[in-house]
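dumping this here before i forget
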Amino acid sequence: MAQTIDYWNGQIISKVNSDETLAALDHTSAVADFKLWAYIVAFVAWTVDVLFDLRAAEISDTLATKKPHTLNWYRELALRFQYGQALRQDTDQYLNTGLSDTQVAAQKIISQAAVTENTDGSVRMKVVKQAGGDYGQLSDEEKLAFSAYVFDTKDAGVRVHVESLPPDDLKLVLDVYYDPLVLDSTGSRIDGNGDTPVIDAVNAYLKNLRFNGEFAKTRLMDQLQAVEGVELVGILSAQSRYGVRPFSEIQERLIPDAGYLRVIGDGFTINYYPYA
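structure:
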């Protein structure tokens, strides 16, 4: 943003007064020669400032109208969504006048977004919010507002399918060989510092996965074998499903349809064997 003429004039006068050689030029007269020259230079600096602002605005307008939008642009668009706030007309920018940074941040309810292109050329956008320390679906009202926002800001002619889904279900059958000096036959720590360290490690692995990232059985096994007291782990079965579809076996890796994966209800079957 361009500075004012008074700002640049003040900078020049301040520099003169702080310089031992130039300080002698200072004079109380408003029409002292050096003050007139200082004002002229300040006016030139302000003019250059304004011209740079105009050029920057011209470039931004050109990019906004000419640059093809990538999948990453759509992801950033989703993360900029503000629930309950109006857009400036014909733009993807918000009318945030009078709002503090804290208020703006509170309106940005989308915590994670993933955008992919379908085989028919349409765009699939998965979004979630934070809910109780985990990912959660948007409410019907939030999804309606978000869908309207996407419709108003997307490229003309691009079909965007907005989804905010519950997690894909995961069922695991594990053989865990444990150190009987550290764990008991139920998998609890003998010292009382954890009742379910293996289950906790599975849940931590799933929560630490990047949204729409890859689940891999080998990586899960590595994390479980790093748990104190766990000597060996065998993953006998790892099955997943989206919605009400039937469970299917994961061969090695999987990108969850909803973007994230959780073990829910009776999804754990763990057989504990002492390692001798």
